[in-house]
Design goal:
Length: about 475
């Protein structure tokens, strides 16, 4: 995988590369060019120069290019999905679904970019017009992680391009192939040189140089809260706009009046998809005391049906973790919770000695002091506790600094109304699974960040509001 700068696929300025590993085997499956500060500067300058032209391309023409890219992405979907599974580990079916969602997302922003309406505000003086228009903010630094390597990049890039911004993207070096393919389809669809640039390299060095570069006007990052805070501080120092999609630790409130079978099924799918490496994955299960045991039994039964294996094997329903860091984190978090008194209801161990497999794991009666109850596990770990009344459940939901997704299962409209008013989360999902779809807002509050990556809110992030006041005569 090479860099793509100003319309050309290039090696890094000093020619260095790093291996890309298959998490199912630990073997190298390719190499990725390792960019330098000189590459960052070239890409940022190319994005600035291209912005002068791309912002004047009509939204209608931009839309046609985005739609063509979406079609090409779908057409090449099988191979792109295979590459994703080889580099990231998720089952091939999940990788194919991700390609489909990425293509839908590009289509959606292609349309939304044609509706970036302004407004007219009646003036106080006669013969005067006050127009409010939306203008693209400028070149954007897009920094994305490895968990949904294609879709995380696609939704930021599509929104930025549709708004008339140019992009320098730095996706994850651990799963670079599918984003390189994404860039390729945009190029094939007719995107002019310099509008979309692609860098790989040391994340801190590249993001630091990129955010500080005067050509960059906005930063959009998805990743951990710790890294997000440091990048947001850097963006603030340089007065760059920022969207921060950070970590989560989603609570699941299960009330005694819920449909327990359906809730257990829905939450097992949401928990173990992508081996739990999802910022909105359900994590802290808080179950009403009277149904704690029946819900636990149903959930454990669902978890036990999963089949771990190489994502390329059609029988696999859960793949390996994406890297050795996640495996070590799971082992450490389970050991710590058990030391503090949690019980292992299923899983709890590494699976096999090759690759980074970890069993789907359910822990019961997990103390609030356990590390996993406070830090984002970002893996196949479900933690259960019981509650006695609604206030206690809401207190637990809001206990952590995170505020991304929250789930609840109940048939009571009164309970739903109180949860809607009091749960501190950017997304509350009642009796339903939650997916990052192009048409709905996606974002957090508190330490989970700010800004939205879906819905019409997502376009706003790439546009500035400009007032143009015009008078027929000069008024003092
Ligand atoms: P990490 O914090 O080291 O890296 C997370 C992502 O940020 C990676 O893609 C990495 O390349 C990138 N990154 C790291 N330092 C960076 C920097 N200084 N500048 C720019 N990008 C940087 O953690 P990890 O071990 O790779 O992943 C585990 C943690 O990351 C999880 O606990 C989770 O909180 C977070 N994460 C969140 C999401 C999400 O969708 N919100 C996705 C992936 C990882």
């Amino acid at each position: 995988m090479r860099l793509y700068i100003d319309g050309a696929w290039v090696e890094s300025a000093d020619g260095s590369t790093r291996p890309v590993l298959n998490p199912a085997t630990g073997d190298a499956v390719g190499t990725v060019a390792w960019g330098t500060p000189a590459d960052v500067a070239r890409a940022a300058v190319a994005a600035r120069e291209a912005f002068g032209r791309w912002r004047d391309v009509s939204p209608y023409e931009r839309s046609k290019i985005l739609r063509a890219a979406a079609s090409l992405l779908r057409a090449g979907g099988a191979e792109i999905a295979r590459r994703m599974t080889l580099e990231q580990g998720k089952p091939l079916g999940e990788a194919k679904a991700e390609v489909g969602v990425a293509a839908d997302t590009i289509d959606w922003f292609a349309e939304e970019g044609r509706r970036t309406y302004g407004r007219i505000i009646p003036a106080r003086e006669p013969g005067t017009q006050q127009m409010v228009v939306k203008v693209p903010v400028g070149p954007v630094a897009v920094l994305t992680p490895w968990n949904f390597p294609l879709n995380q990049a696609a939704r930021k890039i599509a929104a930025a391009l549709a708004a008339g911004c140019t992009v320098v993207a730095k996706p994850s070096e651990e799963a670079p192939g599918c984003v390189a393919e994404l860039v390729r389809v945009f190029v094939e669809a007719g995107l002019p040189a310099g509008v979309l640039n692609l860098l790989f390299g040391d994340p801190a060095a590249i993001s630091g140089a990129l955010i500080a570069h005067p050509a960059i006007r906005k930063v959009s990052f998805t990743g951990s809260t710790a890294v997000g805070k440091s990048l947001a501080a850097l963006a603030g120092q340089h007065m760059k706009r920022a969207t921060m999609e950070l970590g989560g630790h989603a609570p699941v409130l299960v009330f005694a009046d819920a449909d327990l079978d359906a809730a257990a099924k829905a939450m097992a799918v949401a928990k173990f998809r992508n081996a739990g490496q999802i910022c909105i994955a359900p994590t802290r299960f808080v179950v009403e005391q009277s149904v704690y045991t029946p819900f636990m039994d149903r959930f454990v039964a669902e978890a036990s049906t999963l089949r771990l294996g190489n994502g390329l094997d059609p029988a696999t329903t859960m793949g390996p973790l994406a890297n050795a860091r996640r495996l070590q984190a799971m082992e450490a978090m389970v050991a710590d919770a058990v030391d503090q008194g949690a019980s292992v209801r299923t899983g709890g161990r590494r699976h096999g000695n090759a690759g980074y497999f970890f069993e789907p794991t359910v822990l019961g009666e997990v103390p609030l002091t356990a590390r996993a109850m406070n830090e984002e596990p970002f893996g196949p770990l479900a933690l259960m506790r019981s509650f006695e009344n609604l206030d206690e459940a809401i207190g637990e939901a809001n206990r952590l600094p995170y505020g991304l997704a929250a789930f609840a299962f109940t048939r009571s409209s009164d309970t739903i109304a109180r949860l809607g008013a009091r749960v501190e989360a950017g997304m509350l999902s009642v009796n339903a699974n939650l997916l990052a779809l192009p048409e709905v807002p996606f974002g957090g509050v508190k330490d989970s960040g700010y800004g939205s990556e879906g819905g019409s809110e997502a376009m706003e992030a790439y546009m500035a509001t400009k007032l143009i006041k015009v008078s027929e005569t000069v008024t003092p």
